[in-house]
Amino acid sequence: MRVLLVEDEVPLADMVRRGLVADGHTVQVVHDGNAGLAAASTGDHDVVVLDIMLPGLSGYRVLQHLRAAQVWTPVLMLTAKDGEYDEADAFDLGADDYLIKPFSFVVLLARLRALLRRSGEARPTVLKVGTLELDPARHRVFRDGTEITLTPREFGVLEHLMSRAGEVVTKTDILRAVWDAHYEGEVNVVEVYVGYLRRKIDTPFGTRSIETLRGVGYRMSEPG
Ligand code: CA
């Protein structure tokens, strides 16, 4: 595999590089965040090993920039146990895995192999129904190229409906997918949100993309 290693601790970077090369991999090593971002942006690597505390640009910022630019190379982040960041932050920002320092090289290699196996899986792609587009990765919605601003809850409801376009989706399905698992309010809250959505994604554009099936639920389809 082609590995990009972004690590400013030179002895550690050398150790990892030598181990990977000995195992038959190609390794590019850079020692600061900006160089890491530039190298990773080429998309020429199968996997990126990214330290968090880096000079120039932190590993978190590097990762943010990469994902915003739609670069989906799998990233394994290296975190320090006593650092101010933790693995939850890493996953929030789109890391695929993390390893706490100090780590054994054997474990790193096993994690990288596992990442590579998983990387064949599909990444979230832009959902399209008629002229409506929803980009899960960038959290943005457009109708005919016009951006529509939605609240997080509205976005969740729309994403759920669009991912099942053409199918009947019950209010309970939507509630389970978008609201907290322990939500104990009325399923009718879904009606309220579908109403908000229609006022944003349909009414201003003269479209009708969310059909109500009385007593059953909703169906999202291309407006006729
Ligand atoms: Ca560091």
What does this structure look like?
By secondary structure, the chain is of the alpha/beta class. The chain folds into two domains: 2-119, Rossmann fold, CATH 3.40.50.2300; 127-220, Arc Repressor Mutant, subunit A, CATH 1.10.10.10. Helix content is 38%, strand content 22%. The chain has helices at 10-22, 33-41, 59-68, 87-92, 105-118, 152-163, 171-178, 189-202; strands spanning 2-6, 26-30, 47-51, 75-80, 97-101, 127-129, 132-135, 140-143, 146-148, 168-169, 210-213, 217-220. The strands form three sheets. The protein has a five-stranded parallel beta sheet with strand order 2-1-3-4-5. A four-stranded antiparallel beta sheet has the order 6-7-8-9, with helices on one face. Strands 10-12-11 form a three-stranded antiparallel beta sheet. Strand 6 and strand 7 form a beta hairpin. Helix 6 (152-163) packs across helix 8 (189-202). The longest helix has 14 residues, at 105-118. It is elongated, with a radius of gyration of 22 Å. The relative contact order is 0.10. The mean pLDDT is 88. Bound molecules: calcium ion. The site of calcium ion (CA) has 5 residues, from loops.
Can you summarize this structure?
With 224 residues, the protein is of the alpha/beta class. The protein has helices at residues 10-22, 33-41, 59-68, 87-92, 105-118, 152-163, 171-178, 189-202, and strands at 2-6, 26-30, 47-51, 75-80, 97-101, 127-129, 132-135, 140-143, 146-148, 168-169, 210-213, 217-220.
What is the count of distinct domains? 2
Structural class by helix and strand composition: alpha/beta
The helix tally amounts to: 8
User: What spatial form do the alpha-carbon principal axes imply?
Assistant: elongated
Mean pLDDT: 88
CATH topology of the largest domain: Rossmann fold
The fraction of residues in strands falls at 15-25%
User: Which cofactor or ligand species appear?
Assistant: calcium ion
Distance between the termini: 49 Å
Biggest beta sheet attributes: 5 strands, parallel
CATH superfamily of the largest domain: Response regulator
Question: What is the share of helical residues?
Answer: 25-40%
